[in-house]
């Protein structure tokens, strides 16, 4: 499970240290792809394989399906953390997410995400009311129905 938020830095080679709590889950390998909302998504190899399998079963005669398959795979980066727990974010993915030196690595339950800090703050500010509403609807509110 991927939880918490970690303010980190990219080095001159585009590498960052994985959060120590995530390293065991990602030690055998990971895949970084374009995420939603201008961030990058980090998946275990097994989880990305499952996404790829589901995507591969869609009807590729549909333009939207082909576009999604291409966008998902084209810039996907398979990686294995080095002995120090560092992972490289390729230049094309850094450009997509607007990453420079400072980054935020956030948990999203079943995957991790890499954000430009300003983009994350705008997203968070815009979605806080939605979170509060859904939190009550799905029963996380101690007084809500489950």
Brief summary of the model shown:
Helix content is 38%, strand content 23%. It is an alpha+beta fold and 146 residues long. It has one domain: Chemotaxis protein chec (3-Layer(aba) Sandwich), CATH 3.40.1550.
Main β-sheet: number of strands, strand sense, barrel status? 6 strands, antiparallel
Distance between the termini: 22 Å
The overall pLDDT average reads: 94
Rg, rounded, reads 17 Å
Helix content: 25-40%
CATH architecture annotation? 3-Layer(aba) Sandwich
Number of strands: 8
Overall 3D geometry? globular
List segments where confidence is low: pLDDT < 50 over at least 5 consecutive residues.
none
By CATH reckoning, the class would read: Alpha Beta
SS class: alpha+beta
Strand order of the largest sheet: 1-7-8-4-3-5
Instruction: List the domain count as a whole number.
Output: 1
Q: Secondary-structure element order, as H and E? A: EEHEEHHEEHEEH
- Say what the CATH topology is: Chemotaxis protein chec
CATH-assigned homologous superfamily = Transcriptional regulator MraZ domain
Number of DSSP helices? 5
Strand content: 15-25%
